Amino acid sequence: MSRQVVIALCSGSMFGAGLAISGMADPSRVRGFLDLAGAFDPTLLFVMAGALLPMAIAWRFQRAMQCPCFSETFEIPAMRRPDKRLMIGAVIFGIGWGIAGLCPGPAIVGLALIPAKAAVFVAAMLLGMGLYRVVEPRL
Fold first, then answer.
1. Positive or negative CA dihedral for 34, 20, 54, 93?
2. Cα-based torsion angle of the residue sequence 10, 51, 96, 109 in order, rounded to the nearest 10 degrees
3. pLDDT exceeding 90 applies to what percent of the chain?
4. Under a CB-based contact definition with an 8 Å cutoff, are residues 121 and 104 in contact?
C-alpha cells in the first residue's frame, strides 16, 4: 500500500471517528441545527467552532513549511470569487443536507452506524456524481 493511501486512510478514519463521536453522523442532530424556528440543537455550531483553533494552528505551521511532509508541493487552490456554478452547487448541497440531514462525510460514516438510512443517501450521491460526469462535459 502506498504512503498516500495509508495517509488518506488514517485521515479519513480520524474524520469519521470525529463525526461519530460528535454525533454529526446523526441526521436528526443536523436537522435540529438547521431548525432555527423549532427545536434548535446548537451542537453542530460547537463542533464547527471547535475546529477553528486546530485549523488556525495548522495554517500557521503550513505557512512556515517549504513543502508538505508527504508530498512535493502544497495543493492550495487559488482564491477567486464565487461563480454561478459554485453558488448553484452550494444551494443544491444545502437543500440536500437539509432534507436528508446528511452530507458526504457523515453519510459514509452512516453506512456503519445507520446503514439502511445512509445507503439510500449514498446511492443517490453516487448516482448524482456519475450523472455530473456525464452531463458536465456537455455544458
1. negative
2. 30
3. 11
4. no
**Contact (Cβ atoms closer than 8 angstroms) between residue 15 and residue 105:** yes
- Domain containing 9 equals 3-138
Residue identified by cell 452512516 is 110
C-alpha grid cell, residue 37: 424556528
Contacts of 32 (CB under 8 A, 6+ apart): 39, 40, 41, 43
Give alpha helix (H) positions in the chain. Answer: 3-22, 27-34, 43-64, 84-100, 104-113, 115-135
- Amino acid 109 reads V
Residue whose C-alpha cell reads 458536465 in the numeric block:
136
Q: How many domains does the chain divide into?
A: 1
- Nine cell digits for residue 13: 478514519
> For the chain, what is the mean pLDDT?
86
pLDDT digit string, tens, across residues 43-81: 888 888 888 999 999 989 888 888 888 888 888 778 788
